[in-house]
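Summary for the steering committee. The consortium agreed at its last meeting that each partner would contribute one worked example illustrating the joint modelling workflow. Our contribution is presented below. We chose a case with several input lines so that the handling of multiple components could be demonstrated. No manual editing was applied between input and output; the record is shown as generated.
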Amino acid sequence: MSRLLEVKGLETRFFTQDGVVHAVNGISYDLNEGETLAIVGESGCGKSVGVMSLLRLIPQPPGRITAGQVLFGAGDDRKDLLKLSDEEIRQVRGNRIAVIFQDPMTSLNPVLTIGFQISEALMLHMGMDSAAARKRSVELLELVGIPRAAERLDDYPHQFSGGMRQRVMIAMGLSCNPQLLIADEPTTALDVTIQAQITDLVKRLRDEIGMAIIWITHDLGVVAGLADRVIVMYAGFIVEEAQVKELYANPRHPYTLGLLGSLPRLDETRAHRLTSIEGLPPDLIDLPKGCPFYARCKYRIDICAVENPLLLPIGPGHKVACHRDISKVAPTVVDEVETV
Amino acid sequence: MTNYLIRRIIQMFFVIMLAALFTYFLFTVSPGGPLAGIQQQQRRITREDLARLRANYELDLYWPIRFSRWLIGVPSGPIVIGGRELFADTPVGCYLPRDRQVVIQDGQQVVIPAGCDDYVYLSEIPKLHPAVKSSRGILRGDFGLSTVVRAGRPVWDEIMSRLPATLELMIISTLLSFLLGIPIGIYSAIKQYSRFDYTFTTISFIGSAMPTFFFGLLLILLFTVFPSMLQNTFPWLPHLPPGSRLAVRPYEVAPWLPRVTPGTALDHFLHLLMPVGVLTFFYMATWSRFVRSSMLEVLRQDYVRTARAKGLYERVVIVKHALRNALIPFVTVAVLTIPGFFAGAIITETVFAWPGMGRLYYDALTRSDWPIALAFIFVTALLTVIATLLGDVLYTIVDPRIKYS
Ligand SMILES: Nc1ncnc2c1ncn2[C@@H]1O[C@H](COP(=O)(O)OP(=O)(O)O)[C@@H](O)[C@H]1O
Ligand SMILES: [Mg+2]
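What follows is the complete predicted structure of the assembly.
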C-alpha cells in the first residue's frame, strides 16, 4: 500500500470580528491508498474545516490556512495541494478528491436537474460529450441504487427524499473515479435506518472501486465496521490516533474514553446509563494554555493546566496526546463495542 | 395551474373593486375638491350659482351613485323594465343643500349643510347630467372628462398624450438601472468587503437615501445653473436644458457641440439626460443592493460549496449555480416595475417639467382634477395586481420547486 495523502502541521484560522478562531491547530496524519480513515469528535471541533482545508474549500476571507503541507498523490506525482495554483487545485477537486457533504437537503442545487449536476463534472473532468455524460450518469445512479435511474435524470433535487439525495451526492462524488472520497458526516442528517443504508452503500462501493475514504462523524458507533483507522479530534487538535480495533480495545485519551462511554451497547444486559462527557469544548477564539480538554478531564493533573501534551506514539500505529497513561490509572471503561 | 389562475383572477377582480371603492371614497371625504376655495374667493356667490357648479362636477349626486356612474356608467336615468320606469322618484342626490350658519368659539363662521331644499330624483339624471357629459364607466374603458387640468377633454386622450413621455423615461431608466445595478450587485457580493464593494455600497446607500427631488435639483444646479453663471470664465462648460421633453427653439449646449435643432434626436437625448440620470441612479441603487444581498445569501449556500468541490470553474459556479438562484427573487420583484411604466415618476417628472404621467397626476392632485387622479390610481392598481400575478407565474418558471395547484 502506498501513501496517498500526508498532512503535516495543518493549521487553519478564521479571522473574524470577534477574534481569531483557532479551528485547526497543526494536525498531522497520513492515509494510504484504498484506506478508510475516520475522523471523530464533537461538533465544532474542527473536523470539517480540517478536511475542507485540504481542498482549500474554506471561505477565504475570513478563513486562512496559516501553516502546513498537504502532500497528495503517489511517487513523482506528489504535490503540496496548498501550493497549487487556483487552476491546479480546481483540477484536483471533484476529479481526484471528491467530497460528500453533511446535509443532502441543501447540498444539491435546487434549480438544476440531477442529471445536469452529475453530468457537469463528467464533461469537465472526463471530457465527455453531453450524451456520454448522460449515459454515464444513469449508470452512476444505478450504481448507488436509485430505482428507475434513467427516468429520474431530469428530476430536480426536491423530488428526491433525503436518503436518495445523499445517494445522488455519492454518485456525483464517485463520477470521476476519485482516489480519495471525503465524506463529511454524510449520514448525520438522515434517519437511523437510512444511515445504515448509506454506510453500507459506501462500504460496498469502496470494495468495488477501491478509493481511499476520509469519513467524518461525531458518532464513534458507525466507525467500527467501516474504518481501518480512527483519528479523534478535540478543539482543533488530534488527541488520539489508532487502528479502529485498538482504539475500542485500548482507548488512551480521556476524551476518547468519554466518547466511547456515550455509546449505547447492544450487549448491555442491565439498563445502563449512558455516560456523556460533562461540560463544553473550549472557545476556539480563546484557547486555554494547557491541554484543551483540561476543564472536562477526570484524570487531570497539575501539568495539564500549563502544558498541552504532544501527540506521541505509545504503541504500533497508536498515538495519544495525554500527560498520563490512563490505562494504568483507572480500569478501562469499555473493552469492546458492537457495531451499531 | 389553470384553476389557480382562475382563482387568482377572480381574487384580483375583487381587489381592484375594493381599491376603486376605497380610493373613490377617500377622494369624496377628503377636504378640498374642485369647489374648495370658491366660496372664499367669491363671497358674493349665490346659492344657485354654487348649485350649478356643484352639478357641473356631479357633486349634486350622492357619492355611491357617483361611484357607480364612474365605475360602470349607471344609473344614467330611471330603470326601464317592460316599458315601465322604476324608482323614478327615488332621490339620488341633492341639488340645493340647505345651509345653516354656525358660530364656533373663536368667532369664525362655518357653513354646515343641514337637510336639502331640492332633491335630485333618478328621473332627473338624463336632464341634469346628459350622456355626452358623463362617462360610460371606467370598467367599460371610459375614464370620463377632465374637470380642471384639461377641462372638458376626455381623460383617456390626456393619458394617451402623456404616456409616451413616461414610457420613454421609465423604460430607459429601468433598463439602464438593471444593466448597471445587476452586475454591480453581483460583483459586490463576489468581492464582499473589497474596495469595490465598499465604494458601491456607499454609492447605493446615497442613491437610495437621497430624495430624487434633491438630486434632480442638484443636477440642474450643476449642469444648467452653474454653467450659465460661469459662462464667461468657463465657456466650454456644457449647459443642459433643465426641463421639458423637447425644446421650442434652437439652443446651444456647448461651444464644441453644434447648435441643437428642436425635435432632433440630439435634442431628445439632451433633454433625457438629467431625468434619466436621476431615476437610473435611484433605481440602480435599489437593484444593486437587492442583487448583492440575494447573491450573498446564495453564495453562502451548501450547493455553491458543492459546485466548487466538484472542481467547476469559478465563473461557472457564479453564473450557473449561484446567479441562477439569486435571480429568482429578483425576477419576481423586477416585474413589479411594470406599473411604474404607466405611473411614471411623480417627483422627477415634476422637477424636470417632464410632460408625463407622474406630472399629470401631480397636477391632477394639486388642482383637484378627480377624474384624472382616479383614472391614474385605477390603472396603476390594475397594473400592480397584474404584475403581481405575473411575478407569481414567473416564479413557477424560474424555480422548479414552486408549483401552484
Ligand atoms: N466561516 C467561518 N467563519 C468563522 N468561523 C468558522 C467558520 N467555519 C467554521 N468556523 C469555526 O471553526 C470551528 C470548527 O468548525 P467545523 O470544522 O465546522 O466543526 P465540525 O467539527 O463540527 O465539523 C468552529 O468553532 C466554527 O465556529
Ligand atoms: Mg462539520
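Chain B has a mean pLDDT of 86. Chain B is about 60% helix and 10% strand.
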